[in-house]
């Protein structure tokens, strides 16, 4: 008889991880993932072998912990395995070990907190191999994994630390208007567009009044049919991101002269009314804002981040503190 898994299920819902990963882990311990063993037990005629390593029989435990691909990803992730290695038969003990790793003092928190994401990304790569015959290389798996984990925890930390600012904004609404603070933040907005692929890259770089890079972000969009639409998506995503992060007084800088002019004086640019209205609708949520045009060379860092989506296929969307490591030389001289 199998042991009760209710304790593990309850623990999963209390994890610090993305909701989609909680649901996935719940399905994993409930035996509800479509691996070969489960499909055959339901009467489906499928190949009983693991499609990655060729082993006869593919259980959930095998796919996530003991398959050659899973073992490779666990190794590159630097996540310590149990002394005797992962169990070859018990999905419950393996997942329980990974989830409880945050309570092991000898494991750095930056690694132990990544456990749920490691399991999730192993499953995604298993599916990519099954359906598209492609998987991430070990270095790419490692880089994307920790980028995703650090992004999630950064957002959660910012949300927590900004609660006091949000409370102060509510006080202003309740007790009346107070003079606006000076515009102490500057945000460079970058964008790139591929006419052939109908894809665009969006980026932003937030600096304080001394020029220090506080945050930067990158995102990709598909189905973008014009350069103007690419610029619009970058503006909308930037303003939505910074509003979510509770930055209220910002100078927004772009190398799209037409967009800046239309936002500054919509009546003078009737042909761009749709674009100016969409952007100004987002800007109205800020306590104070200003838009400014600068040449592309003057916001080179933001432009290169956006270009990386199109030219280097960096489709992973994220928000991170400081400048990107690969462009530190640019921001040091900016």
Automatic annotation (TrEMBL):
The highest taxon in the source lineage is Eukaryota
Which InterPro entries does this one have?
RNase_H-like_EbsB-rel, RNaseH_domain, RVT-Znf
Q: Which Pfam families match?
A: RVT_3 (PF13456), zf-RVT (PF13966)
* Signal peptide interval: none
Q: Residue limits of the Reverse transcriptase zinc-binding domain?
A: 9-74
What are the GO MF terms of this UniProt record?
Answer: nucleic acid binding; RNA-DNA hybrid ribonuclease activity
In this chain the RNase H type-1 domain maps to 192-307
Q: Which PANTHER family match?
A: BNAC02G40300D PROTEIN, POLYNUCLEOTIDYL TRANSFERASE, RIBONUCLEASE H-LIKE SUPERFAMILY PROTEIN
Q: What is this protein called?
A: Uncharacterized protein LOC108831846
Q: Which organism is it from?
A: Raphanus sativus (Radish)
Lineage of the native species? Answer: Eukaryota, Viridiplantae, Streptophyta, Embryophyta, Tracheophyta
């Amino acid at each position: 008889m199998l042991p009760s898994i209710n304790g593990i299920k309850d623990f999963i819902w209390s994890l610090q991880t993305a909701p989609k990963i909680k649901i996935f882990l719940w399905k994993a311990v409930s035996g509800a993932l479509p691996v070969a063993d489960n499909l055959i037990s339901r009467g489906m005629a499928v190949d009983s072998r693991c499609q990655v390593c060729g082993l006869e029989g593919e259980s959930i435990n095998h796919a996530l912990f003991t398959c050659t691909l899973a073992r490779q990803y666990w190794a590159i992730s630097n996540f310590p395995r149990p002394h005797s290695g992962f169990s070859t038969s018990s999905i419950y003990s393996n997942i329980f070990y990974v989830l409880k790793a945050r309570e092991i003092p000898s494991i750095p928190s930056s690694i132990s907190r990544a456990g749920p994401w490691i399991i999730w990304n192993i499953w995604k790569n298993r599916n990519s191999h099954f359906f598209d015959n492609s998987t991430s290389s070990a270095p790419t798996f490692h880089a994307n994994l920790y980028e995703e984990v650090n992004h999630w925890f950064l957002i959660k930390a910012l949300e927590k630390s900004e609660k006091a600012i949000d409370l102060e904004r509510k006080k202003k609404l309740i007790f009346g208007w107070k003079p606006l603070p000076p515009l102490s933040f500057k945000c460079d907005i970058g964008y790139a567009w591929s006419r052939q692929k109908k894809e665009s890259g969006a980026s932003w770089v937030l600096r304080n009044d001394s020029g220090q890079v506080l945050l930067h972000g990158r995102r990709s969009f598909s189905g973008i049919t014009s350069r103007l639409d690419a610029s619009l998506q970058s503006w909308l995503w930037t303003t939505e991101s910074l509003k979510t992060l509770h930055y209220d007084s910002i100078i927004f800088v772009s190398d799209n002269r037409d967009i800046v002019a239309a936002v500054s004086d919509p009546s003078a640019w009737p042909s761009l009314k749709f674009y100016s209205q969409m952007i100004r609708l987002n800007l109205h949520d800020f306590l104070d804002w200003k838009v400014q045009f600068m040449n592309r060379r003057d916001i080179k860092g933001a432009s290169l981040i956006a270009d990386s989506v199109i030219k280097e296929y960096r489709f992973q969307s994220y928000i991170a503190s400081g400048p990107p490591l690969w462009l530190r030389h640019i921001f040091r001289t900016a």
